């Protein structure tokens, strides 16, 4: 039986919506599935009581109430408070307007105790109190609600997860509903299959609710849940990331600057460019935000390796490649730097660095960002045109190299060797030079926001594509890579939670 974690479920749910499947439809399908299973398992039950929490789990409960009422059952509802989430609230309001359904609100243990006769009245009790959104120790009146449901003789039908059970581990921290039947959605939550959970789960039924398989592969708003953009009130410089960019040469000075500027715009505290002198001085001339460390000579060479390796110690992420060129000792220097850092320092390798890394094994947090040509140089394989085949090829090479590979193109394919994500944002306007450098800066920045490099790369591709779309909405096929930079903050803020947490929360 396929399993899913509550976080993966949250992501699939939000990304299904990104694909065009409204979350209200998912909730309707979920609640209807609960009703259908109750009618099937308890055909003679005529009195149904639903106990609904204030989240979407409660929302599913309200949908089930509507369907069972429509099927001629006598239905009552105990609401543990007014739902806050829009979807649950809409279904709560719909149920309250049904004069044939009695609704009582109980926000305290006392009010629940006054409703004990309702629990005794029921032939079946729907447990729609807590699902995958359970956090921490049980609060009231949820704890009492679980207690009273367990005391009542009627069989309990749990919505998605028996309330009180940890959906990912199956642990019961305080108490949980002992259900006769659990109707879970889309895929079994991992915790439901834990041996210790059996006495709470009862019979397990997995019901599809209309989430397309692409929702677990496409990159969308849900993936931002893997990144932390919040900041403590007492933050200090460097807390939110230091990125070192090793790039540039006599010919190319813009590429490393685009990487650094993108990283800053995405939300790191410091972005430093270590580049051969001509590129370093050009970088300094480009503006006050970029710090440039000049490396003697016209291009990266072996004599710079020690300096860069020690410089890298002071950074969280190193991005290497943009604008380096492939002349002279540069490839040897790239290989030497890579071997010293991979597995010890989160790395993004892009552009000319990739040509030097063919045959190298990666370790730890390492992300490669090739376009098709660089992928061939890196692996010797021309990426196939079909998306399915491309996914398989990227997954295989990511696995054999031991790195996350983000293969850029109309659809970006990202894999860490086991999981795969496909990014569908972007526009043909982005074939202009430098958009890959902006992407590298985004990957480097997001590696300071999560420990999951696959998700850092996936969200970077998503943001880069949307920034390109926004720039092209104004300038059409006349955008430059620099036009993406100013779009980055707005795109991120559309999807990321950027809270300021009180300093006292320093646990
Ligand atoms: N694909 C999908 O994801 C789909 C999901 N669907 C359904 O949504 C469910 C997830 O919904 P969800 O995220 O709103 O969380 P949910 O389980 O309702 O709990 C949140 C509420 O509980 C409360 N609360 C939390 N911890 C508590 C505690 N310890 N003690 C006491 N209270 C506690 C919390 O209160 P707060 O912390 O906000 O004060 C909040 O009000 C999922 O299980 C499935 O049934 C379907 O619609 C189909 C599509
Ligand atoms: N035809 C396209 N449609 C949509 N997005 C594209 C297209 N071509 C490139 N992109 C996007 O532009 C960015 C840079 O890709 P690419 O041009 O291949 O890299 P580079 O700039 O390194 O050559 C990536 O985010 C990619 O998704
Ligand atoms: K539940």
UniProtKB/TrEMBL annotation:
Residues reported in the UniProt entry to bind AMP: 436
Domain YjeF C-terminal as annotated: residue spans: 220-495
Signal peptide (from-to): none
Domain of life the protein comes from: Archaea
MF-aspect GO terms: ADP-dependent NAD(P)H-hydrate dehydratase activity; ATP binding; kinase activity; metal ion binding; NAD(P)HX epimerase activity
PROSITE patterns: YJEF_C_1 (PS01049), YJEF_C_2 (PS01050), YJEF_C_3 (PS51383), YJEF_N (PS51385)
Protein name listed in UniProt: Bifunctional NAD(P)H-hydrate repair enzyme
Gene (name only): nnrE
């Amino acid at each position: 039986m396929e399993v899913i974690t509550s976080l993966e479920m949250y992501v699939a749910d939000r990304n299904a919506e990104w694909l065009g499947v409204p979350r209200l439809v998912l909730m309707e399908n979920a609640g209807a599935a609960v009703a259908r299973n109750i009618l099937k398992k308890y055909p003679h039950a005529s009195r149904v009581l639903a106990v609904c929490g204030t989240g979407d789990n409660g929302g599913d409960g309200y949908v089930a109430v509507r369907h069972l009422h429509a099927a001629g059952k006598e239905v009552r509802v105990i609401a543990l408070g007014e739902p806050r989430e829009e979807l649950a609230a809409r279904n709560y309001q719909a149920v309250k307007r049904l004069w044939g359904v009695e609704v009582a609100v109980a926000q305290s243990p006392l009010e629940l105790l006054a409703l004990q006769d309702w629990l005794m009245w029921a032939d079946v009790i729907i447990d729609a109190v807590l699902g995958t959104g359970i956090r921490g120790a049980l609060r009231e009146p949820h704890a009492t609600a679980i207690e009273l449901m367990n005391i009542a003789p009627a069989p309990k039908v749990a919505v998605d997860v028996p309330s009180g059970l940890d959906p990912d581990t199956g642990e019961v921290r305080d108490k949980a509903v002992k259900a006769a039947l659990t109707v879970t959605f889309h895929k079994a939550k991992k915790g439901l299959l834990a041996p210790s959970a059996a006495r709470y789960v009862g019979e397990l039924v997995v019901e599809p609710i209309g989430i397309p398989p692409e929702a677990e592969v496409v990159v969308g708003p849900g993936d931002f849940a893997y990144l932390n953009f919040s900041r403590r009130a007492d933050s200090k410089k460097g807390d939110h990331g230091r990125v070192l960019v090793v790039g540039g040469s006599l010919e190319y000075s813009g590429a490393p600057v685009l990487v650094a500027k993108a990283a800053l715009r995405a939300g790191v505290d410091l972005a430093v460019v270590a580049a051969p002198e001509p590129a370093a001085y050009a970088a300094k001339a480009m503006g006050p935000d970029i710090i440039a460390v000049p490396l003697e000579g016209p291009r990266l060479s072996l004599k710079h390796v020690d300096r860069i390796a020690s410089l890298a110690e002071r950074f969280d992420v190193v991005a290497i490649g943009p604008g380096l060129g492939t002349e002279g000792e540069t490839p040897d220097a790239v290989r030497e730097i890579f071997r010293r850092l991979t597995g010890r320092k989160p790395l993004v390798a892009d552009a000319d660095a990739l040509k030097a890394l063919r045959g190298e094994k990666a370790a730890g947090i390492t992300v490669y960002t090739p376009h098709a040509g660089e992928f061939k140089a890196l692996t010797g394989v021309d990426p196939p045109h079909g998306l399915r085949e491309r996914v398989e090829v990227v997954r295989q090479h990511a696995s054999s190299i031991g790195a996350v590979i983000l293969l850029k193109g109309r659809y970006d394919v990202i894999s860490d060797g086991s999981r795969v994500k496909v990014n569908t944002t972007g526009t043909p306007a982005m074939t202009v030079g430098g958009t890959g450098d902006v992407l590298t800066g985004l990957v480097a920045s997001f590696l300071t926001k999560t420990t999951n490099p696959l998700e850092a790369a996936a969200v970077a591709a998503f943001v880069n594509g949307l920034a390109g779309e926004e720039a092209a909405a104004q300038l059409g096929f006349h955008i430059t890579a620099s036009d993406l930079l100013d779009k980055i903050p707005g795109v991120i803020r559309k999807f990321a939670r950027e809270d300021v947490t009180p300093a006292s929360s320093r646990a």
